């Protein structure tokens, strides 16, 4: 199984990363990708930039742990998670999740699981730059509710 977890300042190319995960594989029947992109607007207020901070070492270890959990919950053939940090401008990619499986259900579920984790529990802090000044992004109840569904026992493989 191929798994990749990277935290980086540099941009990434989603299609190239997805291609790496499935290159030379004939057992992959489904490849699900999700790319999170920095928006230019938040609740009607223009965003100048987004600053992402993380705890080096701990963030990679925590994300790796959740990728491993996804691999035990679903019959994955591979997974990639790339998350940027630093100052990001609207239109720039923030995060990439790619999951590969023989079947689509597992690939979709694992990708959702990983994104719900990244959105709610990954050790990142987000500071939004707006015309009125910077503000830290607060946790959202809707994101917590989405992540809560994964606290139930894993489905049978």
Explain what you see.
- With 157 residues, the chain is α+β, with helices and mostly antiparallel strands.
- The chain has a single domain, classed as Aldehyde Oxidoreductase, domain 3.
- Helix content is 32%, strand content 36%.
- The chain has four helices and nine strands.
- Strands 3, 4, 6, 8 and 9 form a five-stranded antiparallel sheet that branches.
- Strand 3 and strand 4 form a beta hairpin.
- The longest helix has 17 residues.
- The mean pLDDT is 91.
Helical element count? 4
The class by helix and strand makeup works out as: alpha+beta
Span between N and C termini?
16 Å
Could you give the count of β-strands? 9
List descriptors.
alpha+beta, four-stranded mixed β-sheet, 9 strands, Aldehyde Oxidoreductase, domain 3, single chain, globular, 157 residues
Task: Give the SSE map.
Elements: E1 2-8, H1 14-22, E2 30-37, E3 41-42, E4 45-54, H2 58-73, E5 76-84, E6 86-88, E7 93-101, H3 104-120, E8 124-130, E9 135-136, H4 141-148
Parallel strand pairs: 1-5
Antiparallel strand pairs: 2-7, 3-4, 4-6, 4-8, 5-7, 8-9
Helix pairs in contact: 2-3, 3-4
């Amino acid at each position: 199984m191929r798994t990749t977890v990277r935290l980086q300042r540099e941009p990434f190319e989603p299609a190239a990363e997805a291609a790496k995960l499935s290159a030379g594989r004939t057992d992959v029947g489904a490849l699900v990708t999700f790319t999170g992109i920095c928006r230019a607007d938040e609740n009607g207020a223009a965003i100048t930039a987004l600053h992402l901070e993380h705890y080096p070492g701990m963030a990679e270890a925590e994300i790796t742990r959740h990728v491993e959990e996804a691999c035990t919950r679903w019959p994955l053939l591979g997974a990639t998670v790339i998350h940027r940090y630093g100052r990001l401008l609207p239109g720039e990619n923030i995060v990439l999740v790619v999951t590969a499986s023989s079947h689509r259900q597992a690939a979709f579920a694992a990708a959702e699981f990983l994104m719900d984790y990244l959105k709610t529990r990954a050790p990142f802090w987000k500071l939004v730059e707006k015309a009125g000044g910077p503000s830290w992004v607060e946790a959202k109840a809707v994101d917590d509710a989405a992540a809560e569904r994964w606290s139930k026992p894993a489905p049978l493989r």
